[in-house]
Amino acid sequence: MADDEQIVRDGLTMVLDAESDLEVVGGARTGLEVVRMAAELRPDVVVMDVRMPMMDGVEATRAIVADGFGGADDHTVRVLVLTSYHEDAAVYGALRAGASGFLLKAAATADLAAAVRAVGAGTAWLDPVVAQGLIKEFAARADPAVPTSEDLRRLTNREREVLVLLAHGLSTEEISDHLVVSVATTKTHIGRILMKLGLRDRTQAVAAAYRSGVVQPGDAPPSRAKRT
Fold first, then answer.
1. In angstroms, rounded to a whole number, what is the distance separating the alpha carbons of residues 81 and 62?
2. pLDDT in tens, the chain (228 residues)
3. Predicted model pTM
4. Domains of the chain, CATH where assigned
5. Which of 152, 71, 76, 58 is nearest to 120 (CA)?
6. Nearest CA to 16 among 55, 36, 41, 43?
7. DSSP per position, 6-37
8. Could you count the other beta carbons within 10 Å of the beta carbon of residue 117?
9. How crowded is the C-beta side of 188, counted as CA atoms within 13 Å?
């Protein structure tokens, strides 16, 4: 649980600890502290405030997602952003940094536990207010299935690998086997690709890969990762 206000951390911790299947394993006050604790504790989910000292939640999210902290058991730390501020820059910044969900603090008591469960299971969670804003932005794009070069630069190397494999027609299970990662991890990568590129589904992702030049017709699929 990462928030610079102790009273907020304590209150949200009580909400989650009251659930029989959830446990808060640590609390952080700064962005630097939550990145360090995520590496040490490797929780399933980090609940991340946006505005924190030393490193804001967007940068902390980017640092956690870029590393992933996956060990021999392929454990991935996912991020649920929780904030009082519904600002487009914060929303898009966090999602593009790789957050798996975004929840406003006004909805925390009712929806926090459900959001944590969803993100922990490898799916996405968007507050309805946030989702409405994203829909409006993507609907205004001339062609949402053609990401810009700036959009593509937001993808991590692993997300780009997953996009290429999607374009070659591999299923989620086949991608997982190809990269030697869990199905849940692959689902997380696919969800982040769709969010970062502003795409609706896998079909649009495949179209985007070809139309943006990430994959060329006739390209051979990349080699499989070696199992160790």
1. 12
2. 999 999 999 999 999 999 999 999 999 999 999 999 999 999 999 999 988 999 999 999 988 887 655 444 456 789 999 877 666 677 777 877 888 888 888 876 778 999 999 888 877 787 877 776 665 665 565 555 567 777 788 888 899 999 999 888 888 888 999 999 988 889 888 988 988 887 877 877 888 888 888 888 767 777 776 655
3. 0.65
4. 6-137 (3.40.50.2300), 142-211 (1.10.10.10)
5. 76
6. 43
7. HHHHHHHHHHHHTSTT------BSSHHHHHHH
8. 16
9. 28
Q: Which two tokens stand for residue 4?
A: 């610079």
CA angle 77, 183, 166 (to 5 degrees): 110
Rounded to 10 deg, the angle between the 202-211 and 183-197 helix axes is: 60
Residue 138 identity (one-letter amino acid): F
Residue 166's identity, in one-letter code, is L
